[in-house]
Amino acid sequence: MYPDRVVSGMRPTGSMHLGHFHGALKNWIKMQSEHPCLFFVADWHALTTHYDDPAIIERSVWEMLVDWLAAGVDPSQATLFIQSKVPEHAELHLLLSMATPLGWLERVPTYKDQVENLANKDLSTYGFLGYPLLQAADVLIYRASLVPVGEDQVPHIEMMREIARRFNHLYGKEKGFEEKSIEAVKKLGSKRAKLYLELRTEYQQEGRDDALDQAHAMLDEAQNLSNIDRERLFGYLEGSRKLILVEPHAKLTAASRLPGLDGRKMSKSYGNAIALREDKDSVTKKIRTMPTDPARVRRTDVGDPLKCPVWQLHEVYSSNATREWVVKGCTTAGIGCLECKQPVIDAVIAEQEPMHERAQQYLDDPTLVRAIVADGCDKARKLAQETMRDVREAMGLSYS
Ligand code: TRP
Ligand code: SF4
């Protein structure tokens, strides 16, 4: 019914580093040529944890957009925008909040963890509790089917699905839905109509998802259907309700986690990060001074790559041949650590070179980024408004 839209966001809470590139951006860049993609700067989300330090958000927004563009996010393929410029997200969040049980939010696993982990901040706020619901609004408002997220966010997607289902159940009633649906089935033509009804039965009585998928594909292709009828028939497949919001699926990032300079997760707050557009000399210096296997004190001591954070970078950046050279050289003291680090330095610099090049035009002319985002906000807003029209109508809010 709706194109396989992809929605994802990132919080602007500091500059981007190579961990973000390998953990998320690479995946976005891959998806942008396969699906219609909407990528947004989640500034409201950043406020849920940084409400006491909004300056960092303001500073990070444009820098983050330049980083995305530098990394290869292509504005001619993907729609880039800023969450707060599409206030419909907030309206949907509010409306969804009316029928969302508190327990659903309290049960999100990241909730209690984060309140405890970030104990230096008071996160017992209304906004922080509601954060996964705001995230649900971000996705549902575009009727997106795919959300690229990390493993830790899968429960959020599960909750979005429950929210969409509950919404459709509560508000998807339409007077005479059954009759209108039967009329719409007839419009499919007798052959298709028969197939549709068979698939519906298979799905409803045997729970076969493949039947549902096949029916969806058939409806997508049926050209003589109006959008309203198509929507009804999607709803009629699953029950006797109209589908207003679409249940999204998590698209797991093939976890290529890049460790930081000390072997822990790369994070700006650990001081172990390489910025996305770090300059060459600084990259070289940072890697040259990285800790290695602590047992390898002298050049003549043998080492164990498994105890060395440099090895973890080889695992991301080096070919098999280089890795064999490392293992052999390290365990026999045949190579020195600086020698061992050089291929990693070269690979990181090579990876960053096109990023520096792409960033340059945006740094030279900041109005380019402003224009890309203005255009993206317009596009996103139009899509959001379409959904909100249906949502308001379903909830009895379209007075006229
Ligand atoms: N939760 C994401 C993060 O912490 C950001 C985000 C906000 C998001 N809304 C989203 C991601 C919607 C995917 C879809 O970085
Ligand atoms: Fe680490 Fe390489 Fe030194 Fe071995 S040779 S300890 S893998 S830096």
Automatic annotation (TrEMBL):
One of its GO terms (cellular component) is cytosol. The keyword Aminoacyl-tRNA synthetase applies. One of its GO terms (molecular function) is tryptophan-tRNA ligase activity. Gene3D superfamilies: HUPs, Tyrosyl-Transfer RNA Synthetase. SUPFAM superfamilies: Nucleotidylyl transferase. Signal peptide: none annotated. One of its GO terms (biological process) is tryptophanyl-tRNA aminoacylation. Transmembrane segments: none annotated. Keywords: Aminoacyl-tRNA synthetase, ATP-binding, Ligase, Nucleotide-binding, Protein biosynthesis. CDD domains: TrpRS_core. It catalyses: tRNA(Trp) + L-tryptophan + ATP = L-tryptophyl-tRNA(Trp) + AMP + diphosphate + H(+). Its EC number is 6.1.1.2. Belongs to the class-I aminoacyl-tRNA synthetase family. This is Tryptophan--tRNA ligase.
